[in-house]
Design a protein that fits this description.
mainly alpha
Length: 265
């Protein structure tokens, strides 16, 4: 159904079609998209920069414009509406788009809190000490098991000094330091980093529970009470973007293709 541009008339409710479009876009194309920046930069490229050859743009600029083009394709008539509207209308559209993935993230993380604890508990055993899904202060690096799953593959969780520094914040984990929970059987082989990557039972359970991204699982394991793009436990936005970078790296195409086949079995 084509999107009808009505300047100045945005109810802003959760039932607005653009909220639903934004929710779908966030779950299928880009979970942490900044719609305000995406729309403004995309419009700029369609107008003032339209005659500049694509190869003149940086790889990041081309990537962001590709995401913008995906958004235009997902909403029939959006391109024409954006080109005709003023800044006020574009701001209103961006705000409605943003509500979609924001609401989806809230629903996903809320529903996952209890389920993730069930999934990470070894069969026939209990977590010691036990973890509560409605209180996250003792999650993350503060708990032996969630800490082990969140520990970056380049660090040794069994090292007491390393563990203490992670818990105290002396060691800050950045988003491009990937956690162990991404790997099958939670085992990382430094000689073959692709072995088991994105094939963990935890990710499969999460996917079956709700169509979502690894960053939502990561949030459920951490001690952060609220989702933030820049949370100090995982650097969610950097974590998410670093995964996308690998998936779109032509040098990794064979491994990515194999991974897609594995997930589509």
């Amino acid at each position: 159904m084509p999107f009808n541009w009505v300047p100045g008339k945005y109810c802003g409710s959760a039932t607005d079609p653009l909220v639903h479009y934004g929710r779908h876009f966030g779950q299928t194309v880009h979970a942490l998209c900044n719609f305000q920046a995406l729309l403004m930069n995309g419009i700029l490229q369609m107008r003032e920069l339209a005659k500049i050859p694509e190869e003149n743009f940086t790889a990041e600029e081309r990537h962001k414009y590709h995401i913008f083009q995906e958004l235009l394709k997902s909403v029939a008539g959006l391109k024409e509406c954006l080109m005709q509207g003023g800044d006020g209308e574009v701001d209103a559209v961006a705000e409605l788009f943003t509500k979609g993935p924001s609401g989806a993230r809230g629903d996903d993380t809320k529903s996952l809190k209890g389920s993730v604890l069930d999934w990470i508990t070894p069969k026939g055993q209990t977590l010691v000490p036990p973890l509560a899904c409605n209180m996250k202060i003792d999650h993350g690096f503060h708990h032996e098991w969630t800490g082990a799953l969140l520990c970056p593959t380049g660090l040794d969780w069994s090292n007491t000094e390393m563990k203490t520094k992670l818990r105290s914040g002396e060691i800050i984990v950045t988003g491009d330091q990937w956690p162990l929970f991404l790997y099958a059987d939670y085992h990382y082989n430094p000689e073959d980093p692709w072995n088991g990557l994105f094939r963990s039972a935890l990710l499969v359970c999460a996917y079956k529970h709700i169509f979502m991204s690894p960053s939502s699982v990561c949030f459920s394991l951490t001690s952060s009470p609220l989702f933030s793009h820049m949370d100090t436990d995982t650097g969610s936005e950097r974590f998410y973007n670093s995964i996308l970078d690998v998936f779109e790296d032509l040098d990794e195409k064979q491994e990515v293709d194999d991974l897609v086949v594995w997930w589509n079995r």
